[in-house]
Amino acid sequence: MGLRSVEIVTKYDKFLIVFLLIISASSLFLLPKIMANKITTMNNIEIKVNGKLVKTVIVNRKSQPQYIKFKFGKSIGIIETRNGMVRMLPMDKNICPQGICSKTGWIKESYQSIVCLPNKIVVSFSKSNTDVDGVVY
Amino acid sequence: MKQIVKKVIAILMVVFIPLSLIACGNNNQQYTRTDFMMDTVIQVTAYGRNAKKAVDESMEKLKEIDNLMSSQESGSDIQKINENAGKKYVKVNPETVYVIKTALKYGEISGGNFDITIAPLINLWGIGTDHAHVPTESQIKDAMKYINYKDVLLDEKNDEVKLSRKGMSIDLGGIAKGYAADEIENIMKENGVKHALINLGGSSVYLYGSKPDGSNWNIGIQNPFGDKGKYFAIVSGKDMLIDTSGNYERYFIQNGKRYHHILNPFTGYPAESGVVSTTIVSTNIKSIDADALSTITFILGVDKGMKLIESMPGVDAIFVTPDYKVYATSGLKGKLKITDSRFKLYENR
Question: Closest Cα to residue A122, out of A137, A100, A95, A92?
Answer without folding.
Answer: A100
